[in-house]
């Protein structure tokens, strides 16, 4: 994998993770929150839960997904460099 | 053992621990002083980042704020955690790869300009001092309530402790004390939360407990809270009061502001590798989330407990905590209908933002206040929201050692953040202002000496803020995040993701963001605070959220100015290429 491909793959990954980031916080926690409040999760209204709990769990998961995806990407690039040598 | 003695023991032990760590890990070079020798383990750095980030505001004030704001409180929960996703994905790994000491370092090098570096230093110092002032007030509150010493004495003790490990240890000392402070802080936060969750819902996990049913009942806690709130004339707890656009912008300003805060960013300069910077951001958010997902539960529990333990009780039989906090002026009661009962409901109890106490006492023995009562509502209680977390264990009648623990935790939160801030202030002065701008000839030993001196001076100034707290502390928090979002964040992001952005664009963008955001906040918060209502706001965005708009203006100005002026030099393009690779 060339540095250009690596950077492109990185940008693609960033775009999909940031999209998810936006949906779980600004989407479910704010814009769609009132709509989601008609459903419930135990004693929580769903929109309320996303605003005060769910979005935070989502953020943690997103960062670790990124850590693992970048780890794989870096490995791919390293392998490629070694093949070229 | 009395609760006061216990508090002395807990606080004393924790302080001894911090000082011990400082002596063990003192810094001997600028590399160690600024970035802890770049040898910090990512998990330890995650804990240190969490302690650095979670300030007196997170520990002491946030749950209290949420308990009065209800669902709107989510702006703080999402705003102060979501920024870590941006940090981990967009900034931390690249800035670590860049490998210098400070945030202005990156801006000055990437935009090949001393002016850009100076603008960044200016923003950094302003943001950090704003923040430090709040920490010192937190130290003062904890000391005066729990140790019953003068606020000033408390602040001075706090200054001496911070002085010890920040001046001696630099970033290295701060990092390892922050790890200890995180442990103290999170333990102190979770223990009472778990106790209260069991008491109210029978569920030992607070995050689940506040969505659970009440003990011996089939009613959900949140449903009960909605009902109580409506009965007292408030909005339902689980519904928004603010408009959606305002919630959106405040959350965004806090998120982008978090990602642009220099004292948080530099923490990622201390790990050995780029991949460690990413991991470290993940661990940091795990440690932060532990407190941030507990806070809304604490908010809901304490709201129920607070209402139930005072509403329509006679003042004479009111609980001890009510009178204790009244004694230091953070609770006040004015018997408007003269029935001797505490009536709590929506509405402002009296004119003015704070109670003004006369020396006398009222008919029930309460501290008399001279504010004119407001008679169009029945509310008789003034309560400072900041006290909810500190008062919570007392309200829930938990054992004395829990209260002592909370006091030690509050101090850990305030001191760890203060130390991190003081360090970025001192390194931006000794490194960016002296070494890189005005006194390039000084050698490393001299630079280290100046770094220690500026840390010491910064601590003195911070202490003065604690002893003579400026009345505007609450207002300037909006300032710190607004400025970080509208100046530093765009400059860093564009510096990494655009090779075309040049120094003219970056400087114009930062200045545009700075001027727009600062003037909006100054206009509504300082000059014409009586106009600070939603119908006067631009697009319905409050001063707290305006940093988001400032950030968009920064981006627009920076990109358009860049496209009309010369390309940055080739070396800059090569540098950007280099930091993009692992």
Describe this structure in words.
- Chain A has 85 residues and is mainly alpha-helical.
- Chain A has one domain.
- Chain A has three helices and two strands.
- In chain A, strand 1 and strand 2 form a beta hairpin.
- The radius of gyration of chain A is 18 Å and the shape is elongated.
- The two termini of chain A are 13 Å apart.
- Chain B has one domain: Sodium/glucose cotransporter, CATH 1.20.1730.
- Chain B is 69% helix and 2% strand.
- Chain B is built from 21 helices and four strands.
- Chain B has a two-stranded antiparallel ribbon. Chain B has a two-stranded antiparallel ribbon with strand order 2-3.
- In chain B, helix 7 runs antiparallel to helix 18.
- At the A-B interface, helix 1, strand 2 and helix 3 of A face helix 5, helix 10, helix 11 and helix 13 of B.
Write the layout of secondary structure elements.
The complex is a heterodimer of chains A (85) and B (582).
Chain A: H1 3-31, H2 33-36, E1 40-41, E2 44-45, H3 46-84
Antiparallel strand pairs in A: 1-2
Helix pairs in contact in A: 1-3
Chain B: H1 3-24, H2 30-35, H3 42-53, H4 56-69, H5 74-98, H6 103-110, H7 114-147, H8 151-201, H9 206-209, H10 221-231, H11 244-259, H12 262-265, H13 274-310, H14 320-327, E1 331-333, E2 357-361, E3 367-369, E4 381-383, H15 388-395, H16 400-438, H17 444-467, H18 473-497, H19 503-527, H20 546-563, H21 570-580
Antiparallel strand pairs in B: 1-4, 2-3
Key features?
heterodimer, A: 85 residues, mainly alpha, 3 helices, 85% helix, elongated, B: 582 residues, Sodium/glucose cotransporter, two-stranded antiparallel ribbon, 21 helices, 69% helix, 2% strand, globular
At a glance:
Chain A is mostly helical. Helices cover 85% and strands 5% of the residues of chain A.
